[in-house]
Design brief:
heterotrimer; A alpha/beta (258); B alpha/beta (355); C mainly beta (75); A: alpha/beta; Rossmann fold; seven-stranded mixed sheet; two-stranded antiparallel sheet; 36% helix; C: 75 residues; mainly beta; Alpha-Beta Plaits; binds thiamine diphosphate; binds iron/sulfur cluster
Amino acid sequence: MAEITLDQIIQPENMVYTRSRIMTDTVLHYCPGCGHGTVHRLLAEVIEELDLQSETIGITPVGCSVLMYNYMDIDMQEAAHGRAPALATAIKRLMSEKFVFTYQGDGDLAAIGTAETIHACNRGENITILFINNGIYGMTGGQMAPTTLPDMKASTCPYGRDVQMMGNPLKITDIVATLPGSYYVTRQSVHTPGNVRKAKKAIRKAVEYQKRNQGTCFVEIVSNCNSGWKMTPVDANQWLEENMLPFYPLGDLKVPEE
Amino acid sequence: MGELRLMKGNEAVAEAAIRAGADGYFGYPITPQSEVMEYLMAEKPHERTGMVVLQAESELAAINMVYGGAACGKKVMTSSSSPGISLMQEGISYIAGAELPCLLVNVVRGGPGLGTIQPAQSDYFQSVKGGGHGDYRLITLAPASVQEMSDFVRLGFELAFKYRNPAMILSDGAIGQMMEKVELFDPVPRSKEILPWATTGKTPDRERNIITSLDLDPKRQEDFNLKLQKKYREIEEKEVRFEKIQCDDAEYLFVAYGTSSRVVQKAVQLARSRGIRVGLFRPITLWPFPSKEIFAMTEQVKGILSVEMSAGQMVEDIRLAVKGKIKVDYYGRMGGIIPTPDEVVEMLEKKIIGG
Amino acid sequence: MAKVRGAIVVDTERCKGCELCVGACPTDVIGMAEEVNSKGYHYAYMKNPEACTGCVNCAIICPDGVISVYRVKTT
Ligand SMILES: Cc1ncc(C[n+]2csc(CCOP(=O)(O)OP(=O)(O)O)c2C)c(N)n1
Ligand code: SF4
Ligand code: SF4
Ligand code: SF4
């Protein structure tokens, strides 16, 4: 039997994966290998699969993902640093039939925006929060974040985070899980294909559950910042696995009672 | 004739918001304006009109809720008093930068810092000169009665939507707390219109809508700023509002707004009973400031006394307006003290007539 | 015996050369080109196309969404 040629395989009817049409053609400005792009893609796929484009209003943070609205073909608002959950609160209350999400980094969500995060989740706002924890301030050039690990280096803790002096990293997702207003709380990562698949399932749940009006759905993605960490993308993902995950273990922290 | 009621200024704001068809109110308690949210919550506007009212965790959250709602094209508002308005400045700047309509109410108390809960007018600069960062302007309305507290809610929303710009009612603790008869306007239903620029979900018939104040390209950022400035010039051209009281034969002029203008109205009577021909010019819009109209008065009057419950803020705009043609001075009290008509007349005599 | 054959198409101009796809491929299909794209990145390509099973691992790990995957069953 004759071997099948590449040209025969690469035919539209054989396509099993391509970028979601919810992603625009604009090239992402992120550094090579940055997890932000992966998470954008997963969210876009979920919005496409659930046919939510015309109902979706997304909020971008201040941080590397501030320009997310250039990459997704949906209505979006750009919030001030840390305030995305406040915007989302009002939008969802004014238009309860819409799908409303925020997308926030760790500085945005767990430092400057801690109050907005905790109170939106505690009120049980029916919104979905995607929280990208890369343990550092990416956009401003690699300063210490609330999530920076003990002894981890950043530009404002060049000798490593001294917890005696600089305080401890904040596991805000664990706090969110304890709040009566949160409905689904999970921690995922996108550093291996297997984890990407799990993260997508989690994001899909966090989107679908919003229709139930039972409270806030919160997905932390432990991600990389190879520029801030000063590593190659491949090394960064390895480092993530060896250092971030023991401190921020993956898995569900709160699941709905079925 | 609309419904007549005896109400506090703050309550009038709240009732007017429901009647104006507001979609949402987001606030945080602070004296002397907490009655706004208290009244709203007691009225259950979610039942009356479907209006959303939410007590936020801070003024920071409240103003950003306003941003989110405004970006959906909704009629949304907040109210606060000086320290709370300071905390909101970041959000106000973003709202102006994203060209969103909304209504802000500042029931001013004395400052700086925690200051006092008594009335003051010391947030004039903050309101008309910017307050937050960047070159932006707030349409600023200064009510002098409970009636105007109510009327300006409707007017403020109208102007905000007409220009896609935040509008501020700059009141003070005296007007917020005082009870007066007010004729309420008839309620209008909440709007169902979907505004073309609003983020309401991207439907196949249009491009996606993005609400942002960010543009990293200097050329585009400058162009955007020029566009904003053009809008501000148009507002200055078309939206100046003021009232002249006993100005026809005036030789001297008081300029005062809000609570001060009420005191000055008494002072005008008092002065005239002593044979001093003085009038009151009351700016209703503090921005746009009635500069041309005040300049026009220099043909007629010999001097102007600005009366303010501050260390002299509006007087700077009056000086700019009269371009040195006549004498301009200021008299005011601070820290929550309201000047008396006697003091005001005495100061007119001392600083303007005799000076 | 049924056999699955796959192939990938890399949008080379959008590839940032991060190499995450290389390690994600269970059958060592992907290599990085000697040449660079107009941004100066060495881009991913199928150095070993026969081994591709179309498992989409590479495509889902790619942060820039530049990989499309095709798959056929052959007998
Ligand atoms: C009020 C305010 N303070 C500070 C900044 C500067 N700033 C921009 S992004 C950022 C940190 C972003 O870090 P993170 O949220 O972790 O997102 P990442 O860039 O890592 O994705 C800071 C401090 C700002 N834009 N606004
Ligand atoms: S700086 Fe870090 S978070 Fe920002 S794009 Fe680069 S890798 Fe991603
Ligand atoms: S589809 Fe699977 S086998 Fe083919 S190149 Fe990608 S990862 Fe390798
Ligand atoms: S993962 Fe994507 S961007 Fe990175 S090298 Fe592979 S194809 Fe290029």
